[in-house]
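Hi support team,

I submitted a single chain yesterday and got back a structure, but I'm not sure I'm reading the token output correctly. Could someone confirm the output below corresponds to the sequence I sent? I've pasted both exactly as they appear in my results page.

Thanks,
R.
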Amino acid sequence: MNKVFKVLILTALILCLFSASAGAAAKTYAVMPFNIDSVEQYKYMGMSVPQMISSRLYSKGNFQPIAKTTLAGQSAAGSESDAARAQSAMHADYVIWGDIVIVEQDVTMNVYARGKEGGVWSRSVRTKVHSLQPSVQDISSAISREVFGVSAAQGAGITAVTNQQKQVRELSPQLNPDLVVNEDGVRDVYLNPNIRYAGNTDDSGTLRTPTLPFPSVDFEVFDLDGDGLNEIVVLEEHAVGVYRFENNQMKELAKEKIRLMDNLLSVRVYNDGTGRPKIIINAQDDRESANTYVYSFDGRNLKQEAKNIKYYMNVVKIPNQNRSILVGQSGDVQRVFKGDIYEMVKAGDTYVEGTKFDMPEKVNALNFAWLPDKEAVELLIVLSPEERLRVFGKGGNRIFETEEKYSGSYVGIEQTAQIRGMGKDTSYIPDKYFIPQRMLTADLEGRGEYSLLINKPISTAAQIFERYRFFPQGEIHALYWDGVGLNLKWKTRRIRGSVINISLADFNNDGILDLVVGLNTHPGAVGISQRKTMLMAYPLDLNMSDPNTPPDAVEFLHD
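Hi R., thanks for writing in. Yes, this is the structure output for that exact sequence:
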């Protein structure tokens, strides 16, 4: 009997514990679709703004959104009574609804929240389309603080870190102190749960090559000869070289000089599945016309396969097809580019126009990338002439443009409005079109969430002098589309030197994908001629990353 009595007591205790646990269950909330009064271009905000608010209200173990399947059948609420009926049907502790009115670039947004016991909280904001994202963040923080009763620190996405969590982070093998993430307060952790802005002083999360004794224009990492090991193509100012990173050394495998009168602009590698991958070198000749070269590498030697191609060419990834295509556009002496953008097709020892692409104005063969969003819509990302990122939606409608500038290449082509045949005006300083660096798109976490990777140059002098292009520092930013704009997902720590480009590849052939950054050292404004080349690689151990690890408070500190 004693044993039976003990079992009964133990069972009662377990039931009490479960009961207490159930009582402390996370409260649920539902963010309804918003009513939107606007032109067709902004109709998507009726769904995307609620999704943004919902993600910012989530607090593990405290507040969580109702299941998407439950919310799927609900339409926008036009009044409190509509919201109350939906709240009852969904059995949600809180319901949030609202409306947005957009007239040209002016936005008026009204947001309401209701608890189980009734009573309505409301907030109204007026802003511009390009400033809507921070307003959504402010409203989300206000709901967390004033409706949910969450403290300011929790509302900003900062959670306490226990000693046990700190010990786990210190022992975890995948931590990379050189990636910064979650600056906007989003609670998901991407790629790497250990987030620091300044980080440790060691370089345990970064690989570095010895310096090469020359400045570089561009680089790429690719398996050029089909042996299963990646090579590194380095484009100098008047030569192209092939290297392999072995035993912490840059081993030169081949080098080919290119005539001095050519202005070398960029290098891309394209694999069409036939023969060896093609090394595409964009160049401008002494007549200021496009003069692109194509090489291949057989493991020992570089072979020139084509030259004098009058197109600037680029390799662009096609969304949702896991393949890349070669695109091109004719060069122009005055305007740099002319005509339409085409898929380029190999024909004998040259390349010719294939399928034409219908692109918005000011898009050229070198300045765009496609970025799939969560709804499988192909967004077109374009680097504007001012080096801001423009986002185009369906039908070529421009829906967003960043305030910050990106890319920051020092390699450019002079463009002038002078009429051909009238001679050169020696007193005229021509503008330059700076060749865009790569805009890489990738689903690094394997969750269908694509990021845009791009360089963010940093220079005080460049903010004052437009033609100063030798940036002393840079950061690689991973941006994602949150339904309203491009938002920062993660970034590298500050990189000392002028970033020339980036690549995603297994840099040192160890089976781990790397974010590879090429840079020229920055010996100061008066030492430009003494620049040298260096490559850095950030291992991205995707198998070890834990998206459920809470971020540390220090992640939200800014420089």
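A quick pointer for reading it: The radius of gyration is 27 Å. Let us know if anything else looks off.

Best,
Support desk
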